[in-house]
Design goal:
It is a single chain. The chain is built from seven helices and 14 strands. It is an alpha+beta fold and about 375 residues long. It folds into two domains: about 1-25 and about 225-375, 60s Ribosomal Protein L30, Chain: A (2-Layer Sandwich), CATH 3.30.1330.60; about 35-210, Porin. The strands form three sheets. An eight-stranded antiparallel beta barrel has the order 1-2-3-4-5-6-7-8. It is rod-shaped. The two termini are about 25 Å apart.
Amino acid sequence: MKKIVLILMFSLGLLKMQAQIEKEKNNINNYNKWSVEAAGGFNKPQQTITAKYSMERISPYTVDLGVRYMMNNKFGLKADFGYNSFTGRDTSIDFDSKYYRADLQGVANLGRIMNFETWTKTLGILGHAGFGVAQLENKELHVKDRMGNLIAGFTGQVRLSDRVAITGDLSTIVNAFQDRNFDGAGLTESRGFSGVLFNGTLGLNVYLGKNKKHADWVVISQEVDLSPLESKIAELEALVSKIPEKQIIVEKPTTTTIVNDKDIIKELINEKYYSVYFDFNKSTPIKNSTAAIDVVLNYLRKNPSASLDIIGFADQIGNSVYNNKLSNQRAKNVKVILEKAGIPSSQLNVVPEGADLSIEKNSQEARRLARRVTFRVK
């Protein structure tokens, strides 16, 4: 009988793990990938400026328009067009020049890479870098200076909704083969990287697509239809629940021991065959893991003198204070479920363990197993 129970529970555990892996695979594209960006702000040419020409410390009239495609929730590409206007201040020789650029850039969603979701759902940051072409124009001086450029910067995000986010960007542009200074009057006297320009803008991201969330904000841990696997799990759980509580005989070479099936269930509980799992940063059990609570509940009802430790865990993402709080809340919520089912509070003891350091931190699959509540019958 004990061997049968162990086989059933082992099969049940494998199916649940398979269900979690299938969930990850099936949801890889369950978010929007396209967005358009529009922003405006200020600029500051750092070099080069002709003698007797000067600009305000911070010059207005910078515009940036772009379209972005995220290959996943961490990395993507964007194409953007930029416009800058340069004019002289009161103490300068009067001039009016324009700078146009087009760039292709790689984008890294630093908010997801650094797991911002552990402490905020509204703030994000993107890093971007790439290259492109540019042209400096001064119509009064009949100047058209074509050049290449390198661009890099950071974009802060504040999510207003699933469709719109406010952005604030700081970028540095370095021009190559720039023959004319930004005023258009003088020569740079260099064919290398000579022009440096800083841009600061405020703007909007508008997210496109039929799904609810965009890659900027999605954490790949969504619910999907796993009915084929869930039916198999239900069948196994039904078999386990029907095992009768009767005495069986375990024979050893020199002794014969009488063991009750309820002791087998106790052993399985204490060996963590029954665990309750949680989604990332959540304290409510996932739907498929509540069957473990049913087994523990039935055991306690049949053994009213038993006491139970409810042991909460978190993964290693986030600081220790937060993880201790989260593991405690997970265990408390399971305790509440048992209390509402009629188990006296005096039988239940919450044990928050914080982050499970035995689980590999850098594996998403392993972290999923760490987010759990286990039990210890005493």
